[in-house]
Design brief:
Protocatechuate 3,4-Dioxygenase, subunit A; five-stranded mixed sheet; globular; 10 strands; 200 residues; alpha/beta; 2 helices; single chain; 2 domains
């Protein structure tokens, strides 16, 4: 084999190997850990209404807007996932007779979802404010988890250090930042909470 030709083959092989390595690194960087789970809890009710507007005009409490995306562990969107949510009202009471502050939302074609509610209150037996989730999608393991808020007074401004004050919180990843948005007359809390499902 001529030296120039051999060198070309080696160079081409090295170039291909570097492309494969780059692709592998890109795939690895897209990998996401599954969202930590939590107990279903005693207040879950099936057949919640399909309604992303949980807060009615005039409801007391700080308005809350939550949005996010349902993904798989490869970082790919999970379209049309079913996202069930339920929470207490602003003073920490669950509606056990009806479906106030309960809903089932279907994500769109790229897995995005959102809903409007109020910031849930504290109640006896639970340390932190939270919203319950149950997420299902064909080909994926069901996820039951909870959303917590970094502004909760129990964390004293440092969720990374203090999240374990609520023994139910299994991971600080479930404690999400809260942004206050809107003009002073119509301010609301804005939170992003992405959900990562494991495949079957």
């Amino acid at each position: 084999m001529q030296p120039a030709l051999a060198l070309g083959i080696v160079s081409a092989g090295a170039g291909f190997a570097s492309q494969v390595l780059a692709a592998a690194l890109e795939i690895a960087s897209a990998q996401r850990p599954a969202t930590p789970g939590a107990a279903l809890g005693p207040f879950y009710k099936a057949r919640a209404p399909a309604n992303a507007q949980l807060r009615n005009a005039g409801d007391p409490g700080l308005p809350l807007v939550v949005s996010g995306q349902v993904l798989d562990v490869r970082g790919a969107p999970v379209p049309q996932a079913s996202v069930e949510i339920w929470q207490a009202d602003h003073i920490g009471k669950y509606d056990l007779e009806g479906y106030r502050y309960r809903a089932r939302i279907v994500g769109d074609g790229v897995g995005s979802y959102s809903f409007e509610s109020v910031m849930p209150g504290h109640y006896p037996g639970r340390v932190c404010q939270h919203v319950h989730y149950r997420v299902t999608a064909p080909g994926h393991k069901p996820l039951v988890t909870q959303l917590y808020f970094a502004t909760d007074p129990i964390f004293e401004g440092d969720p990374a250090r203090n999240y374990a004050r609520d023994p139910v919180i299994g991971s600080v990843e479930l404690v999400r930042p809260v942004m206050l948005k809107g003009d002073p007359a119509e301010i609301h809390a804005d939170v992003r909470f992405d959900l990562v499902l494991e495949t079957l």
